Task: structure prediction
Amino acid sequence: MVLGRRFTQFITQLGGMTELLASSIVVGFTHPPKWRETARQMFNFGVQSAPVVLLTGTATGCILALQMWYQFRLMQMETAIGPVVSLSMTNELGPLLTGLMVAGRMGAAMAAELGTMRVTEQIDALRSLATDPIRYLVVPRLIAGIVMIPLLTAFAMAFGIAGGYVVAVKLKGVNAAFYWDNTVRFTAPSDVWVGIIKSAVFAMIIVIIACYKGFNTAGGAEGVGKATTGTVVAASVTILVTDFFLTNILF
Result:
């Protein structure tokens, strides 16, 4: 009984999120939102999320380079650290960690904001004023996420590769010329585009889950807390699962 109820709830939520995504795409093309609100959401996604994303990318590149140096020096393959760091950051770690960081920060913030609007009946007030909540609340966030999260991912890639260079070359003494030559030789533009495409998909996942959870919040302050926590968990798990399938498709 419990398993069946959980499965039914999962299918219901999945259908609701799919419907919300489809409605947002249609509304975005037929009735574009006000650009002032979209710009405000871009600021929230991009500028305010940049420090944690860039710090995460840099730390990941440094740690990855350090671990690879300990392993590759046994085989005297230190110059291969560059391609490993570069390909890891562009194909997987850059978009994945950026998605998880933004899900934890912006996903929770969006769910809390919209959940509060729901329990205080502000969303119902928008409908009573003939204002479409999807156009006013969801579409600006969706556009901002699709634009800004790939940009954050690109910066995370660059900072991660730079961090790997500093650790490998400046700290461990790997030859700089060979390091960059191998990095450029084995890293193709398609590797960067794979990460950008993944991050755009992750952006849609984060925004749609957060908005759906916020729109369906009930139970006052406790419900807002549950919606916030549920958003972070659901978005993080969905990003990890989706990353697996995208990797199989894009390679």
Remarks:
- Residues 34-250 form one domain.
- The chain has a mean pLDDT of 89.
